[in-house]
Design a protein that fits this description.
It contains 17 helices and 13 strands. It has 572 residues and is an alpha/beta fold. The protein has a domain of 112 residues: Families 57/38 glycoside transferase, middle domain (immunoglobulin/albumin-binding domain-like, Up-down Bundle). Strands 1, 2, 3, 4, 7, 10, 11, 12 and 13 form a 9-stranded mixed beta sheet that branches. Strand 5 and strand 6 form a beta hairpin. Helix 3 packs antiparallel against helix 4.
Length: 572
């Protein structure tokens, strides 16, 4: 007898790194995630299927990431990256054991472990998958093992985009790209940064009151049936990161918003949104916290591999966490067998936890409930090296020992157990304090007038060409202008600036896309398009090959005669 439903969602996203640097920021970030997360995840899904088990994972792959995984330049770059890793660890095999180095026999063992590991990843990528990860994700989608969800084309921060044409373009191009690459239109969507806003009234330049639809209206217009959000958005209360502590980010202070009152709703079911027939499901905080918490989550266990310490010569991760209080220089050497035993222990605990949560909910309410957990895919493998094996063991244990928990993809859940209530959710995101601060603050506020100006210029140019021009050079320029507009809207740029993870890199990347946008727009408006210059830009920013610039044609917003709703800030 079922005690309830479990949805395991993985959100995969990286910004557009193609031909935009290598290390420490650039293509190598993609290659690391391909080696440590995407290929191992496919291997796990494949191995489970060979054992007769469908993973039933919901795998979000943002369109801009999917385009990169499908790119020949990056495929060949990934093979070169793997070859360089194999060459580096081969040199470690030659220098160990070394009697001058403590524990060098174990270092020799670890070098062989990594040599075999990287060799296996390369063999999987080249021979098993034919260098085509997109085709393999599609294969397991079609076999019913996974469900692919879409997102904004370049992960643009939806609530802060100024016009509905630009908001629609993010999800129209994103949805079309997912359908083109995976052969099927995605029914689900990851809102970039889980960022949501309601509909609102504003006074336009014509002096009339206009209505700006809620984000779910744009989703419904693109046939998207559901999306995900954070637990605090559904439940109210204290949002993630909002602990009434003033933190310092760079040279600005963050002061959290007040706690929201409890709503009386929980995340044990999905809900309809009020303005369109689109469903929302919230992450279960307890089940999610058990994994992602830096203090109490599984990945922080001392047996697991240390991410931050690398061998000075080969770059291999030869150490384990040991303790969060242990200095990097004092870390103990990694033991893969010990780590695997810990994965077995943690996966036992997690399956038991989910079962008891659902069983307790059923006993308390008399009805079955949902536990949905969502994580950045890159947590598994890239950050938490053993994480993909954890996912695999959790799925196997549910399948073999806990059949009372019904494993479903998110779309399967929505169709089998459609929501029974509608709920209004507030402006929100997953970021610090649960609102928009991470993407719009004193370090990033200079970016938004530029983004808004590009939005309006893009639509103005698109409006001048309601039909595709016969001039092929002009057509190419219009489409490349649309690509640059999408790329400069990426939420990664303000995020990386705020967190100081890659402040200068993100600033440069944003300005590069703005400069390319303005150069192409100037050429179009002057009627003097330089074919060679356009080719140079096209050779770098080649995503969304079948984009239609007309997606940016102006969408008229409705005039509202009533004077009932509160007026909102005017962005456009």
């Amino acid at each position: 007898m079922s005690v309830g439903q479990f949805v395991f969602m993985l959100h995969s996203h990286l910004p557009f790194y193609r031909k935009a640097g290598m290390w420490p920021f650039g293509e190598e970030n993609l290659y690391e995630c391909m080696a440590e997360t995407y290929v191992p995840l496919l291997n796990a899904i494949s191995e489970l299927y060979d054992e007769g088990i469908k993973a039933k994972l919901t795998v979000g792959i943002t369109p801009i990431l999917a385009e990169q995984l499908n790119d020949e330049h990056l495929k060949q770059g990934f093979i070169k990256y793997l070859d360089s890793r194999i060459e580096s660890v081969s040199k470690d095999l030659e220098r160990y054991p070394d009697e001058k180095v403590p524990h060098s026999q174990h270092l020799k063992y670890l070098a062989k472990y990594y040599y075999d590991w990287f060799t296996h990843i390369k063999d999987s990528f080249v021979n098993k998958y034919g260098t085509d990860l997109i085709a393999q994700f599609k294969k397991y989608q079609d076999l019913g093992c996974i469900e692919i969800t879409t997102s904004g084309a370049t992960h643009g921060f939806s609530p802060l985009l100024a016009t509905d044409a630009n908001l629609n373009a993010q999800f129209k191009v994103g949805s079309d790209t997912t359908k083109r690459l995976f052969g099927k239109k995605a029914s689900g969507c990851w809102l970039p940064e889980c960022a949501y806003r309601q509909g609102y009234q504003y006074v336009g330049k014509d002096g009339q009151k206009h209505w700006r639809p809620a984000i779910e209206v744009t989703l419904q217009n693109n046939d998207i049936e559901y999306f995900f959000t954070e637990s605090h958005v559904i439940e109210g209360g204290n949002s993630i990161g909002n602990r009434r502590v003033i933190g310092v980010y760079g040279n600005i202070e963050y002061i959290p918003l007040p706690d929201r009152p409890a709503t009386g709703y929980d995340t044990y079911s999905a809900y309809w949104l009020p303005d369109a027939q689109v469903a929302v499901m919230g992450r279960n905080e307890r089940a999610g916290y058990q994994v992602w918490s830096a203090a109490d989550g599984y990945p922080g266990d001392g047996c697991y591999r240390e991410f931050h310490r690398k061998d000075a010569k080969s770059g291999m991760h030869y150490w384990r966490i040991t303790s969060p209080k242990t200095d990097l220089g004092d870390k103990m050497l990694y033991d893969p067998v010990l780590a695997l035993n810990k994965v077995n222990e943690n996966s036992d605990h997690y399956t038991t936890l989910i079962y008891h949560m659902l069983n307790d909910y059923k006993k308390a309410t008399g009805k079955e409930g949902l536990v949905m957990v969502s994580f950045d895919t890159e947590l598994y493998g890239h950050w938490w090296f053993e994480g993909v094996e954890f996912i695999k063991q959790v799925i196997k244990k549910f399948n073999n020992y806990v059949p009372e928990v019904e494993r479903l993809t998110a779309g399967e859940y929505i169709h089998k157990y459609p929501p029974k209530e509608a709920i209004q959710i507030p402006e929100s995101s997953w970021g610090q304090g649960g609102h928009f601060w991470v993407w719009n603050n004193h370090l990033t506020e200079w970016m938004w007038p530029i983004i808004h100006a590009c939005e309006k210029r893009m639509s103005a140019i698109a409006d001048k060409y309601p039909e595709i021009p016969e001039d092929k050079l002009l057509h190419r320029a219009l489409n490349q202008l649309a690509r640059e507009n999408l790329l400069l809207q990426s939420s990664d740029w303000p995020f990386l600036i705020t967190t100081w993870q890659a402040k200068d890199y993100a600033t440069d990347r944003f300005r590069e896309h703005v400069d390319r946008f303005e150069k192409i727009a100037d050429m179009i408006e002057s009627g003097n398009i330089n074919d060679w210059e356009l080719q140079q830009i096209e050779s770098i920013d080649n995503c969304f090959s079948v984009i239609d610039y007309r997606v940016y044609q102006t969408i008229e917003e409705g005039v509202i005669p009533q004077q009932s709703a509160k007026l909102a800030p005017l962005y456009n």
